[in-house]
Amino acid sequence: MWKLVAGTGLALVTLATAMADNATEKPDVTVEFCGRIRHGVMVIGGECTGTTIAVNRMTWEIQLTSDAQQKFAQQHHKKSVVVTGTLKKVVGIEMKDRWIIDAKKLVPQDPEKHKLGVRMIIVGKLQPTSSKDTPAAFMTIDSGGQVWSIDLSANPKLKATASSLVGESVWVMGSLKQPAEQNLTQEKSGVPPILYVSSLKKQTSDSLNRDRNQ
Amino acid sequence: MTNIRSLEIVEAPVIQRTLGLLILVCVVSTLTSKDLRAREYCLKAKCQADKRLSSELVFCRQTKSKFKGVCRDGRAVYDVPGSQVQSMRSLTNSIDSDVPESELRSTRLLISYSDTNHKPSTDTIKAAGLRVIQDYENGSFLIVEPQDDLSAESVGALMADHAVKYVAPDYIMSVPHDTQAGDVRPLATASAPNDPMLDRLWGMQNCGATTVWPSRRDATKIIVAVIDSGVDYRHPDLQANMWSRGGQVGYDFYDEDNDPMDEQNHGTHVAGTIAGVGNNEVGVVGVAWKTQIMAMRFLGPDGSGATSDAVRCIDWAVANGAHILNNSWGGPDSSPELVEAVARAERQGVLFVAAAGNTGGTGNNNDQRPSYPSSLRSKNVIAVGAIDENNARGSFSHYGRQSVDIGAPGVQVLSTTRNNTYESFSGTSMAAPHVAGAAALVWAKTFQDPSQDPDQMVKVRDLIYENARPVPALENFWGHTAPAKIPGGVLDISFLAQTPPTDLPPTEIPRLRFVENRMIVDPARLR
Predict the structure, then answer these.
(1) Do B333 and A40 touch (CB under 8 A)?
(2) I want to staple B111 with a disulfide (CB 3.0 to 4.6 A). Which of A107, B142, B372, B469 is the partner?
(3) How far is CA B253 from the centre of its chain?
(4) For residue B497, how many other CB atoms are within 10 A of its CB?
(5) Are strands A98-108 and A58-63 parallel, antiparallel or unpaired?
(6) Catalytic annotation present for B453
């Protein structure tokens, strides 16, 4: 009997561990996108949520999650708004990679509070870049398969901290920008822009919970 | 020395010489009598048709044989002289000397002439040993029957008369009884276009276009508007098929100008499937070899556009004479303006072909989560899902027993892309243009004066639905709600090769006969 209980317990522990591993595999990317919203958008093959937000040559889709959000999007069509939510990537069939924000909050832009642009918080594993051509201040962060290039040149301390945390789970915050040298063709091909990091720290389970609660 | 031998022969006794000669004649006669006698062969003529003769009659002429008719399976029967057997074998390797006696054969010929003032003369018909069954003026051809077997001389006599435009057997046509759902029919080689990428266009065979091409390939009076990202109207495989009015090939509502040049590739790809120029020795061929493509642009370089601009495209295309609108775009939200624009097109008698939509993974059930405009229930909307080469639903393809009407090729579809290039794309966007191109052929074949007319539109739509090929594996995916008639149906226009134009007056032509596929019949002359 005790063997059965122990076996079941072991199996449950293994399952829980596996689930926890899977959970960490999910992307953990939060965005605040301030740009012009378009509602009633049609795209090739119908591969769209029907609502997009765009700024500085970056256009992402918004997945509206309530009737109130639908109404807001209709009322603010072609106006500047701020959408906050989590970001996911969907592989398209006729469209290239689709970037979709699952909207949690939608508000009109207040020019005094919100600057046009994209701010992101990414939780993921820090990795050095593999390309020799990439500047030393560049690294990548892999968040459940979403790999973002990050630029740490804003602060020399950031680079030093990052170097010590390679291979570890970190929390980074910054502004997403389309690099000047990245042309329109690259944007269309789905190459993501670069996150210019303003803050970086090691991710612990405590800090993760604290951040999420905040 | 030669003189001495000749002398010796001359000096031989006369009786001996005669006897020797007789023996020689007997031996030669015995050895060759079998070969000298004409034999019947049943075969598929391999030689090329020329400008005025079908391949069967070219064969008859080249082998100096007697043409004894064509069988139901398309093979022709000839009496071939022994001296021509070698020549025969060089022209074809599909030879069967066991000619079935009881098989139904058509011995009649169809002789096409240029116009009613220049018909083949009575003397020509007489010299060719033919009897006129009917002068079918509406189609500018004679239906004739040989009084004896048709010989090479008979064919020669016909060719000598310049009023004879084209001669071919009056082929026997019947509904194929041995084809099953999912069968892909062989290419009609006699009328296969010379477009070099033809063998990669699996969709053309799957939807029956290759079967139809021998009898109907052009829809010159039909205008198909490609409402999309524009069209590269300079593409060598599209240029000749662009609709044009005063040099304008459509309109760009994305940039608000007269230049709907594609900056994305999508619209160009769609256009190539509808009507890539056929038989031009370049690239691909569309379902319709020749029809008029109207380029409408509202999707930008990123592949997206505003519903309001789509509405303006629809209205512009309808106002400028489009019969069919291809809509390989969509989204989850409709709007009253879009609904009304599609309804306006319906009232005008314009067919609205729409892609059902794509979602990576397992697709989406449009019955539960609609995708517009394909989910609009106007009478003119045909919602198209995508199938692959094995008649399976494309994994991404939206479906819906009530909201998707028909399937069409939409996986790995090769077509035109910008700047004289070609690419394979997958999506319901690729399936819809197969239907739009097919609708153009159906419309052209069914109506001599195609026009924006609700009755014509409904007829074309119903012919597409009624003749869809049922695929059991697709039954749960689409085609359950009227007017779509076939659950799990996929586009199949091969019926066009089997039916005469519906508005022809009753004639003496037997029901299962039709005008030979290479006859050039001026549609304007058909009532």
Answers:
(1) yes
(2) B142
(3) 34
(4) 22
(5) parallel
(6) no
Is B266 one of the annotated active-site residues of the chain? yes
- Chain B hits for A54, CB-CB cut-off 8 Å, are none
Q: Can you tell me whether residue B120 is helix, strand or coil?
A: coil
**Kind plus residue range of the DSSP H or E element containing B324:** strand B324-327
**Strands A146-151, A194-202: pairing kind:** parallel
For residue B50 the two structure tokens come to 């020329």
In B213-371, which residue ranges form alpha helices assigned H by DSSP? 266-275, 307-319, 336-348
Written as one letter, the residue type at B83 is S
Residue B131 near residue B89 (C-beta atoms within 8 A) = no
Q: What is the sign of the dihedral through the CA atoms of B95, B96, B99 and B105?
A: negative
Q: How many CB atoms lie within 10 A of CB A146?
A: 18
At residue B100, φ and ψ (nearest 5 deg) are: -65, 125
Segment B11-25, tens digit of pLDDT: 445 556 666 666 665
- The single residue of B195, B218, B228, B262 carrying the catalytic annotation is B228
Beta bridge partners, B414, equal B424
Global pTM value: 0.66
Closest CA to B136 of B505, B498, B497: B505
pLDDT in tens, B219-258: 999 999 999 999 999 999 999 999 999 999 999 999 999 9
User: In this predicted structure, what is the pLDDT of residue B141?
Assistant: 73
Amino acid at site B481? T
CA-based nearest distance A41→chain B, Å: 5
A contacts of B336 (beta carbons < 8 Å): none
Lowest mean pLDDT of A72-81, A130-139, A156-165, B435-444, name the range: A130-139
Is residue B419 predicted with pLDDT exceeding 50?
yes
Q: Count of CB contacts below 8 A, A vs B? A: 98
How many Å lie between the alpha carbon of B104 and the closest alpha carbon of chain A?
50
Read off the pLDDT band of B50 (50, 70, 90).
Answer: confident
Mean pLDDT across the stretch A190-214? 73
